Amino acid sequence: MALEKELQFSAENKTEWAKAHLGKFALVKGSELIGVYDNAETAIAEGAKRFGAESFLVRQVDLEEKDIYIPALALGLLHAHPA
Question: Which domain holds residue 63?
Answer without folding.
Answer: 4-74
